[in-house]
Design goal:
By secondary structure, this protein is mostly helical. It has helices at residues 14-24, 33-47, 52-65. The protein is flat, with a radius of gyration of 22 Å.
Length: 98
């Protein structure tokens, strides 16, 4: 049987692989450590003191909803700014008029 490499041979994501392995490992009670960490993050957001509670709440929101898109750079006088936001899948599309 071939030996499995951790992380995969040739990978540069050594730190990420080690964190994933530790996150999925069971704690003393047999629960995944990542589940315990998520619960502690919620407890800190609900009952912690500022600024830690705010940071925890922001982290939860970022993971659930995604981080807010950065503001577009200001347009020059000769360059109009066009911002396009999409949400979900397009059902139908119309050709651009112009």
């Amino acid at each position: 049987m071939a030996r499995r490499h951790f992380p995969p041979k040739g990978s540069t994501a050594v730190w990420a692989a080690a964190l994933r392995k530790a996150a999925m490992a069971p704690d003393r009670e047999g629960r995944k450590r990542i589940d315990r960490l998520a619960e502690r993050l919620f407890e800190l957001a609900e009952h912690g003191e500022a600024p830690a509670a705010l940071a925890a709440a922001r982290e939860i929101g970022d993971r659930l909803d995604g981080k807010a898109a950065p503001a577009p750079p200001p347009a020059g006088e000769d360059e109009p700014t066009r911002v396009v936001y999409t949400w979900g899948e397009a059902i139908a599309s119309e050709p651009a008029k112009g």
